[in-house]
């Protein structure tokens, strides 16, 4: 099955930011996105916010998934959002955050422009459906 928007695949960057070295979840979601017909790029581990912004802009992705388990989400994710805004890519990129994000930190991330936060226990199907329904049309 190919997931497309008017004949074009949904392009996704699955990224790991900061010193977080746990990437099993990122691999699982990258594979699930691929199996759902999305075009998927995986950043690899230990990327700086600037590297993720550069990859998202250069690859012209529709969706940026940020996997973070380190607890530095309140520092690193806003840097990514600011970088996307700097390149005028923030409004054209659906940004998702996956990981352990405390409830009290979620609104700040949403206010920064994160479209959705998927924590432990979120089904793969729910995440894929969210992307299909919310990926920006170009």
Automatic annotation (TrEMBL):
Keyword 4Fe-4S listed? The answer is no
Q: Which residues cross the membrane?
A: none
Q: What is this protein called?
A: Cobalamin B12-binding domain-containing protein
Q: Which GO terms describe its molecular function?
A: cobalamin binding; isomerase activity; metal ion binding
Alphabetical keyword list: Cobalamin, Cobalt, Isomerase, Metal-binding
- What organism is recorded for this protein? Natrarchaeobius halalkaliphilus
PROSITE patterns the record matches: B12_BINDING (PS51332)
Reported cofactor(s):
adenosylcob(III)alamin
Q: Which family is annotated?
A: Belongs to the methylamine corrinoid protein family.
B12-binding domain: residues covered:
9-138
**PANTHER family assigned to the protein according to its UniProt record, in alphabetical order:** METHYLMALONYL-COA MUTASE, LARGE SUBUNIT, METHYLMALONYL-COA MUTASE, MITOCHONDRIAL-RELATED
Q: Name one Pfam family in it.
A: B12-binding
